[in-house]
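[audit] Reproducing an earlier prediction to check determinism. Same input, same settings, fresh worker. If the tokens differ from the archived copy the diff job will pick it up downstream; this log only records the rerun itself.
[audit] input (989 residues):
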Amino acid sequence: MERLAVRRKRMNSLVLLTLLLCSFHGGVTTAKRMIDVDLPAVKCGPCLCSHSGFLADCTSKNLTSVPSKDLPATATFITLRNNSITKLEQGAFRPFNSLQRLDISVNKIHRIDKEAFCGLENLELLDMSNNSLWLNDICLYRSGPFFGMKSLRRLDLSGNQLDDVNPCVFEDVSDTLTWLDLSDNHMRYVNQSPWSTFVLGNLTFLDLSFNNFSNIHKDMFREGLLVLNLSFNRIPYSDTGFPVDAFQNVNRSLTRLEIQTNCNVSDITQNYPDQALSKLTRLSYLAMDGLPNRALGPGFKNLTKPLNLTISGRPGGEQCQIQELKNDTFQTVAGIIRSLDLSMCNLTTITFDAFSPLRYSLEVLVLSYNNRLGFATVNTALHGLQHSVLRILYIDAIVDSLSMCMMVTELDTRNYRNTSITTIYARRNRIELFCEGALRNMPKTLTEAVLYGNKLDFGLYLKDLHYMEGLQSIQVDGYPEALYPPRYFPSSDPGRCQASPHSSLCGKSIYESIRNHPMYALPTSHQDMTQHGPVEDYIDSAIYTLPPKLSSFKSRYNELHWRLEKLHFNPNQLTSLDLANNLLTAWIGPVIGLENVTSLNLSNNLAFDIHLDFFSSFPATKSLFVSHNFLGKVIASDQSGQLFGPLMQLEVLNVSNNYINVLPHQVFQGLGNLQVLDLQHNDLDNFNVNITHMNSLIQILLSDNNIKYLSQEVMDHLDYVAEKVAPNKTVIVDLTFNPLACTCEHLDFLTWVEESKVVFPKGDSYNCFMADGDLHQKINVFKIIDLLQASCVDKLGILVGAAVCFFCLILAIVSAVLYRFRWKLRYLYYASRLAYNRLDNDEQQFAYDAFVSYSTEDHSFVHNELIHELEEKAGLRLIVHNRDFTPGRPVVSNILEAIQSSRRTLVVLTPELLKSDWYHYEMQMATMEAAHTGRDVLLFLIYESVPGDQMSREVLFNLQNSTYIEYPTRGVTQQLRDFWERLSQAIRQ
């Protein structure tokens, strides 16, 4: 376990290995992701395969052999990681000639049969780490274990049982293999010539760490090797362990060498292997153990390339016991060290000019985790780097972890002034205060200060921030994670407190310093008040100074317990302010001077006292994070959107975990540029808010609420954004872990979820509130939607069918009634249009004596005889349609008015009249008039004989029930005279 832990902490030695493992494991993750997304998933025996057949994931399936027959032959990546396979049988991978990557790590493989990998001509990466391979007897076959692998470039055999490996093992891949990991085995060199890897002519990366090497030999390596890791072995720093010609074959190629954690640093006979290293003229990175009281030997003078040198130990100071750096420690590497890591080396003393030889080359200096070094010693060390090219300084944990009252004085920073440092890391130093003037010594080039894990409090040093003219970023986070309990008592007082020789310079109380400084001077009228109350109650007029170029400030996990009220900052360029994970419970305002802030994080402050106009102090904010507070009450009371309304440029709003149960409809009014709205982990029952003005909205995160459905207004606007405003962007709505209403009543909403262009997360992360009241948790809602669409359609069909039948029945009844009374309805309709009123049956009520209904074919008879006899001779008033109807009026209105204004309707019955549609209409209207008024209306004049079979039932009925008179057929004068007299009398009756 210790070996694994140490291997994880190696900073740069296994960069390529890490990339490979990431590619293996990332490939597995990608495979799983593709398998999850592809629907339906392809089952391939006990494994899971992508729908395309290119990826096969057999991880953790308790396999004892390779399932060759179950996997797709088209696979390009197969992982058999974490199973119980004990051997690879002959032809196990023969079907997979397209395979490019194969992971069979973490198994129990101890045997590889002949031609087990036959057929893998295209394989490029093979991971067989963490098995039980021995390979000592593998060369009993005529071919090696990797026979047929013509394209293999990377091979991982770490974590096996390899010791004396015969060169024949790698003969079949000698021309292609460039990357080989043999770490964590039992390998050693026992005068083998050639050694096992010497046959690999194109090898560029070789990892031999965590083995049993006690010496190395030149025949172990060939020209062309770029990276070599020999760390965590037992190779002493001596001519035996590292012979002078050890790196002779790689002197013109090797660029990276790691030999740390090998020697016994307490052995006073050991020296840095400078003679062996002197051959490596192209070396750019070297990691080795730190020996006490040893300078780098003369052999280092031959190294001419810029060198990154790591002489670092392990927790507790193991493998690095330098303790003291003297003026001659780095004399032999003058001008070539670009970065120097001296972390965890138990450093206590650094002389004034120890780093002077590195003044014009050293850019990065790491002195971290030397907890007895202290700020004063670092200041001394920087004396040798005055006017140097140093850019980055790491001084993390350079004081005892139990230090108290840690103050950095002006004397502790005096040598920083003339450096060119741009970034300082001073984490985990328990700094509580910078004494006045300490920060004024910081170089003008300083742009970033990272001070995590300190205990900075309010003090006069804050006013010195204004002198740090180039500072752009400050990070002063506290302790984000819980610390382990102390396991030892300090040997002496670890702090300065009263024992500090500088306590008089920085020992005043905070409030005493404030009271005496003109920056925080109170108005004269308040002077007397300060004598009887705490000063913090009277510093409303204080203006807090920030560095003029500061753009980012972080102070998280510092237990800040202040009221954000009446704060005033000097003009500044601050754009990012992160005060998350503190105790800022009251957001009152106003806050003056932070109008340029575009990113504001006040998350996890347990805030509950918030004024609605607080955010008006941050008009330029584009990203606002206020999760994990208690904003539910203030948001519920904000009916007009006053809280967030001033943030018109806001693009990201995170109000998750705020116990919000009500969102007023206009709470987000004014946020027209909002793109991401995060309301996760609240108590919302609905999301009925106005978002119609948010045309840039592409994410609404609503998971873990109590939302059952979305309103039609919200759905319509999201469709509008997805289809019209941002068709090339993905609009996402997350409703996972909400009790969605999975009922027929809300099928429209569920159908929208499935069919809309708006994207909803897939998977079994939804809850469904069913029609029977049951809550189904962690289900695939899209499968439920399909079931509901089928079941609800069946019920809908029945309901629709019943409704249609009922409607048809009602329609039939209404149609029958309308048809039965059609003429009466027509009559009443037109009578109402004419404002008809029933009149008494007397002589003066009619404008005409008769309305003549006749066929146009009988025009001559009507106009030449009938009108002459009845109007001119008998004195009757007749209304004739082609003579008396009002032009421009509907014919129906003229007919009805003629019938109503005439005493009788005279029908001149002929065969031609029976063919007329208007005649039937006139007769029906006259019939309705008779029924409605109770008077005799119809009078038939049979001008020509009409057979009974040509008459309709209505005509026959009316002839039988109405008065009629026949026109004389012979035309005798006396008969005609009698006919016209009788007709006149009938009309007058």
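[audit] rerun output stored. Observation attached for the diff report: The chain is about 20% helix and 15% strand.
[audit] end
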